[in-house]
Design a protein that fits this description.
Domain 2, N(10)-formyltetrahydrofolate synthetase; alpha/beta; 25 strands; 19 helices; 3 domains; Formyltetrahydrofolate synthetase, domain 3; about 550 residues; Rossmann fold
Amino acid sequence: MSEYKSDIDIARETTGLHINDVAAKLNINQENIVPFGHDKAKLSWDVIENVQQNPDGKLILVTAVTPTPAGEGKTTTSVGLTDGINKIGKQAMVCLREPSLGPCFGMKGGAAGGGHAQVIPMEDINLHFTGDFHAITSAHSLLSAMIDNHIYWGNSMEIDSRKVVFRRVVDMNDRSLRQITSSLGGSTNGYPREDGFDITVASEIMAIFCLSQDLKELEERLGNIIVAFTREKKPVRAKDVNAHKAMTVLLKDAFRPNLVQTLEGNPALIHGGPFANIAHGCNSVVATKTALKLADYVVTEAGFGADLGAEKFFDIKCRKADLAPDAVVLVATVRALKHQGGVSKEDLTTENTEALLDGCANLGRHIRNLSQFGVPIVVCINKFVTDTENEFQVIRDFCSQFHVDVSVSSHWEHGGDGATDLAEKVVKLADSGASQFRTLYDDEMPLFEKIETIAKNIYYADEIMADKSIREQLTWFQNNGFGHLPVCIAKTQYSFSTDPLLLGAPTGHSMTVREVRLSAGAEFVVVVCGAIMTMPGLPRVPSADHIKLDDDGLVQGLF
């Protein structure tokens, strides 16, 4: 039975289509893709440019309830829904983010779906793939090197080395690099200064990569990155140290979307990968907009729960790229909702309708939040084998008060065949014209009010705690032409609050703003809240402990 097989074993049992045949499903000739072996390829610029006159398909966002150790299956549902839509005779493709190496070797694992709802080749996707993240890390490192090199060779821009705000990155969870001192070892190594690392997926270059629509815009945005300040508090940008053009050269090939397939041979574009708890959590605009020109229905996801991923998808990505989603799928599991209702992980397989109903408060909060954006919703219950019909009925009854349809989907176990009911409901909703998409706030709203709007309307916080220095920084941003930018909240994914242990649908809490960072190239303001780290650490027992090559040279332990 499939439930006893690992994701990687299920993936290895599938003989996928040749990538030329996957491209042919999108009416793309093999000379218009750049293959990476037989099972993955990058789209050529000719394809991207030639499809621009095509009408747009329907855009479907998959998001989820608040993450728990029990699992929700957002990527699995995105893939299963795509296969389900194709099963009912429609044409659909999925657009996903690329996984980061940090979580793969840390705690979260990979991000290629699961069971019989995966994208393949899952090992490559979860590891080096086509090298996009390495290119982004290299472009970031080039800028870091050029900043210090400029200071070393005379510092004509008069950069204050104490006010270099551009941190370094590496695509691995390494807490020891969060705060460092660089350029030690004598005068030949430069001027010592405080420095630090973020994970690559939190890099502003990753955000720019995912929000730019062509190479010209990519270069312009890279040039606008504020890397430091002078003693007179004047900003110094990447273009001032002449780094942006060379950075674009490093990114030119990575910037083309990656074409792969689901286990059922349906097309998938996987491109870009900012985290949703510390960045904006969406795949690239160029991949999403190209997919909309290639398919009738495009399924995409936003990271973590709807309070983080979906809010940023709407308020940052859709705002910047002029996208208007046609439907939202809100993924929940019986197990996750029971956990939100206070059930321990060890007891989640036992029927408990009372705790489930308590946990549905979390689901209800997400439904209310999503309704503020004007996009119609379907709730998907990602089915586990231990779930009961009584528990499904509790969720159906709860959702009826919101007039939201519910679909129990078994795509993990049955692939597209298990998601046909969900597909029918989603397609009907997307085709209904019911979407009246709107953002949560206007561009003109002051930055601090934008933070308050999200905190009070999405997180249900009573107050925002920010000390004088934070408010002064926001005032400086506001007064220097950045007040129109959206805000990107960096906070724990495990709670509506900034306390990861506060489950359910908490109210009456406060949100503490620890730091604000101006991403002038990506064109948003990052608001770091609570104890969230932009460089995660490895857990006591990381996934890397169990990842190895077996005697046949196959990867084991990757999930």
